[in-house]
Amino acid sequence: MIGIGPGSPDYLSKRAHDILKTVDAVAGYTTYIDLIRPLIKDKHVISTAMTKEVVRVRLAIDIALSGKSCAIVSSGDPGIYAMAGLALEICKMKKIHVTAPCSRETALREKATLSIEIIPGIPALCSGASLLGAPLNHDFAAISLSDLLTPWELIEQRIEAAAKADFVIVLYNPKSRRRQRHLKTAQKIILKYRDKNTPVGIVVNAMRKGQDVRIVPLKNLHEATVNMQTTVFIGSSASFEYLDFIITPRGYGVKYSVDIL
Hints:
This protein is of the alpha/beta class. It folds into 2 domains: 2-115, 3-Layer(aba) Sandwich (Cobalt-precorrin-4 Transmethylase, domain 1); 124-247, Methyltransferase, Cobalt-precorrin-4 Transmethylase, Domain 2. It is 31% helix and 21% strand. The chain is built from 9 helices and 14 strands. The radius of gyration is 20 Å and the shape is elongated. The relative contact order is 0.13.
C-alpha cells in the first residue's frame, strides 16, 4: 500500500516510485489514479469511485492471491483515513496469513500467504501545516467530520473533548454536498471553549493544482468555502497569527530565558 502524499509524483518517496515501476497492477480511487497516471501507463489498473473502497481492496487482494503484485494507492498516508486498515481487516476476516517484509521471523514469512508492505506518504495534516507555518507545533487532534462510517453523535463527542482539552484541532472532510451543516456545528462546539478570534487555517488542495491557503478567525469559519479537498486547522488557546502564518508555540519562551524572545 502506497501513500501518494499531496498527489504529485514529485512528493513520492523513492520506495514508492520503485514499487509503482515493478508491480503488476495498481488499485485506487479514480482521482488518485489520475494523479499518478504518468507513472503507471502500462499497468493493469483497478479504478473505482468514492464509496467503492471495499470493492477495489478486495479486487487488489484477489490479484495478489493469484500470484501477481498489486499496489493500493491512497492520497496522503495509507494508514491515516485510508486503505491500510481496510486491507488488513479484510485479510483478517478472510483468514489470510499476512506478514510484513521487515519481519525477522523466517518461519513466519514462509507461512505467509501474502506479504503486505505499507509505504508512508505525506498526510494532509502535514502538507497543510507546512503551508500555514507551524500550527501543529504542540499537541493536536485530527477528527474527520464524515459520518459515513462514524455516527455523528460520536464525532460531536470527540470534537467536544478535543476542544475542552485545548488541542489544536485538524478537521478532515469538513463538508460535502450531503453534509452542509457539520462544520458549522463543529464551530459552535469549539466556540464554547475557544476565543472567537482564534486563528483557523483553511487549506484546499495542498500542493496540488488549485491550491488555496487562507487564515480566518474562528467566528467566521462557517462563512468559509470548503469542500472534501479541504483541511481545516483550528488553533489552540496559545496559537497566534503572524503575517501569513499560524504558530502554536511549544513553550520554549516559558521554560527558558532566551534573548531572542
